[in-house]
Amino acid sequence: MGTTHMKRSEGGGSRIGYFIKEGVSSIFSHGLMSFASVGVIIACLLIMGSFTLVAVNVDHIINMLEDENQILAYVDDSLSLDEAVALKSQIELVENVNSATFITRDEAMEQFVDSYEDSSIFEGLDSTVFRHRYIIYLMDLSKTEQTENDLLAITGIAKVNAHLEISRGFVKTRNIVTAVSVILVVILLVVSLFIMVNTINLTVFERREQVAIMKMVGATPGFIRWPFIVEGLLLGVFGALAAYVLEWAVYNLLLQNIVAGSGLSFIRLLPFRRMAVPMLLAFLAGGLGVGVVGSSIALHKYLKI
User: Fold this and answer.
1) Residue 161: which H helix or E strand, with range?
2) What is the average pLDDT across 195-222?
3) pTM exceeds cut of 0.85
4) 40 and 80 in one domain?
5) Residue 263, Ramachandran bin (φ over 0: left; ψ between -120 and 50: alpha; else beta)
6) What is the CATH number of the domain that holds 148?
7) Residue-level pLDDT at 3
8) What is the C-alpha end-to-end distance of the chain, expressed in Å?
9) 177 CB contacts (<8 Å, ≥6 apart)?
10) How many Cα neighbours within 13 Å face the side chain of 23?
11) Cβ(200)–Cβ(232) under 8 Å?
């Protein structure tokens, strides 16, 4: 690059075009390293995106289970029907209770008998062997145990069947998936930055004489820095867009062919379109962040500008 061209670019309106031209030229002149950088960014974003999608779907499934999760609260036998019905207002005041449905002992007996194909074996069964009860829906599965204790504290509630082990299992699964996702995101971001820094380092090393001349004739640090920033930015964008398209394709493949065709259709995963915009923004932010930060680190450490 000539000194005259540099001064004209630095002082004229073609500065941005010059930065872009130099950044693109550097990408193609270091094709192997650029390809490696984009490949690493794609791989890292794919892994991060996949674990994020798993975490989002686990949270979605747990939220559905919370909507459907039922706690049975049995009414004390000593209470009359009217007294049992009156408990509803107290139950719905409990912090984690979303709603409560009262079931009489007669309705409970009908449901029990209907659950068997041969109902004739229950002829003569007296409904008094059943208790009035409430079907209670929760807002947060992680608070199931506290909700059970709060319900038992209500006078007139004799027993609560809360399925604590099931709720704990779902909450534990969500916490593990979230923790693993966060750890992987951090590790993979570090790996991506490392590769990007090495790519920019190679570019800087091969252009060290050119950079030295630019500094000698008075080029500003920003003018020297921006072509490298543009290079990292473009590599990050290419990697992010490619990873996004691959993530979309793999997720839809899983959704359509694996889950639906393997007897797991009861697992209701979110359609990708529900997460398309947030995922695209996250991928672009990740790619741009790795590219720009990686370039800045390399320039700061090795060029001292």
Assistant:
1) strand 157-161
2) 69
3) no
4) no
5) left
6) 3.30.70.3040
7) 44
8) 20
9) 51, 54, 55, 58
10) 23
11) yes
